[in-house]
Amino acid sequence: MNLQISHEETNGVHYLTLAGEVDAYTAPKLKEMLVPLTEEKNAQIVIDLANIDYMDSTGLGIFVGALKSTKKNDGTLKLRGMTERVKRLFEITGLTEVMDIDNEVKGEAR
Amino acid sequence: MNDRDFIIDRYKDLLTTYLNGKNETALYKGQQFSRKLIEQQISPEDVVSHHINVLNDLFPDMTEEMKDAFDFLLEVMIGYGFAYREHQSLRTRQRQLESEIEVAASMQQTLLISDVPTVDSLDIGVKSVPAKKMNGDYFNFVKDDKSISVAVADIIGKGIPAALCMSMIKYAMDSLPEQRMQPNLLLENLNRVVEQNVHPNMFITMLYGLYDTDVHKFYYAGAGHEPGFFYKAATDEFEDMFAKGLVLGVSRTTKYKEYEKQLGPGDMIILLSDGVTECRTSKGFIEREEIVALIRENMHKPAQEIVDSVFHELERLQEFELRDDFTLIILKRMV
Amino acid sequence: MDIQSCVEVCNEWDIVSARQLGRNMAKELGFGNVDQARITTAISELARNIYLYAGSGKICLEPVEQMGRKGLRIIAVDNGPGIRDIRKVMEDGYTTSGGLGAGLPGVKRLMDEFTIDSTIDSGTEILATKWLR
To answer: What are the residue boundaries of the STAS domain, all occurrences included (chain A) (predicted)?
Structure first.
């Protein structure tokens, strides 16, 4: 069980690519990486979840926290490339309604 | 002569006996003696030091190299004792913490325990088991004249933070009696309480429903909770019981929609927490269809026996290691 | 009373020098082998703390006498970052955290008296005394 996070910045947009699992064990690592970005003024963050094959509710909580934090700091947060299992989680919890989620684009449209 | 001096003398006796006879009995006594040393909190370096002193007495012409070698051992044992005692004291502290958690967990149980109501027309079964000591799942029943309300909630995260959050939910719900009859309004009010009081990373999923025992209708609303199942006896089919809605605690102005189901005799409402569907086994996740199959296999039994059987089967599939809190509730219309 | 003897601690070799000094003085004062080893272990831990977390500092040793008792006092002084929460470093388990103040509960157990004084951004002073029995 592990989580890899890669981060690059292009034209002021933070691109995070995650691979592995986001659960109670790996969530702190993601939080540590993501929270400072969401606290920047007008931050634009795009997170690619194409290689996340498992996420639990603690992992989901990190995205909820990040959403609140970007909103507070006038930034944007976009999630993309979810697998079916992860997508289902966002749908059931109703988060698809309040988050910017783009599952059609799978990484190629940069 | 105090205990410590006594122990030094005793050590000398035991060692001398062994040196004279070299028999197993003396060695056995030496082993027993080590317990005494621990009881008296005699450190490893003290033992080595006693040993050296006894040897000096018994063999006055020990070589200098031998003595130096013992000094070296002494130094090593001090370092060993240094780390060992810290380890001991951490274990003691761990035991204290464990017993405190034990107390907190039993308090949680008493605070949150919900009696399962009995009514003639409904057969109700409930199974809620925490993965660790504190349960992050919550369920509650309230019985009124002509209705029974039921809530199932899952607080994200596990353990103590989830348990604390749950107490808040319980008291918030108790303070909203006038909304009890309107599931969507209850969730809207609860959502405001949660939004203002929880950490940004935290949220709660909930399904709240009201069963009207006069007309056998179930009114419900959901806040991002794992969908339950509805079993229709007439067609012998299970269907997902979707109740769309955002989880509690994300946005202050969330509105919820009310849904309803008409129950005929033998129909069942099955509510669960995601610990039931997120069971991981060595072969992967348990799919919702497998849960349905398990319920179907057992549904000739009374409701309580159904939930017990499903739990035991899932526990077995996970090799008796629960990763998530488990809650399963079945309401079955009798007549 | 005798004056203090001090060893500056800047690198790992200085830890050995501090130990050597402590052992010589302890032997001279008449401490037995076990107590000598306890004193040097305490010196080791205090000196390592200085070397690893404070950067530099010194270990001083002085013979002490109080109400007819003789003893040896270790004084560990550094100009490091200081310890914010002394109560926390005095709890067992902090050793494994690898920060300034690691191993202090153990030092306290090895010695008879122990006091610590620390100021944020200006340093830490620890006094530890062992009495002759």
So the answer is: 3-110
From B45, B49, B86, residue closest to C106, measured CB to CB = B86
Taking the CA atoms of residue C22, residue C25, residue C30 and residue C33 in that order, the dihedral angle to the nearest 10 degrees is: 30
Q: Note the pLDDT tens digit of each residue in B65-112.
A: 998 999 899 999 998 888 888 888 888 888 998 898 888 888 877 877
Q: Which CATH class is domain B115-333?
A: alpha beta
Place of tokens 């105090």: B2
Shortest distance between the Cα of A47 and any Cα of chain B, in A, equals 17
Q: What is the spatial distance between Cα B198 and Cα A38, in angstroms, rounded to a whole number?
A: 19
Contacts with B201 from chain A: Cβ below 8 Å: 31, 61-62, 64-65
Nearest to A70 by CA among A11, A25, A13, A8: A13
Q: List chain B residues with CB under 8 Å of C26.
A: none
| Cβ pair A24:B245 closer than 8 A | no
pLDDT band at A108 (very low <50, low <70, confident <90, very high): very low
Q: Token pair of A27, please?
A: 């969530």
Q: Do B93 and C106 touch (CB under 8 A)?
A: no
- B-chain residues within 8 Å CB-CB of A64? 200-201, 203, 247, 249-250
Looking at residue B102, its pLDDT comes to 85
Nearest CA among A10, A5, A18, A68 for reference residue A44 = A10
| Token reading at C85 | 């929460």
ipTM above 0.90, yes or no: no
Cα within 13 Å of Cα(B93), Cβ side = 10
Fold type of domain A3-102? Transcription Regulator spoIIAA (3.30.750)
Q: Could you count the other beta carbons within 10 Å of the beta carbon of residue B167?
A: 14
The domain limits of chain A are 3-102
Q: Dump pLDDT digits (tens) for B247-271.
A: 999 999 999 999 999 999 999 999 9
Residue among A14, A102, A1 at smallest CA distance from A52: A1
Domain count, chain C: 1
Q: Indicate the helix (H) or strand (E) that contains B80.
A: helix B64-112
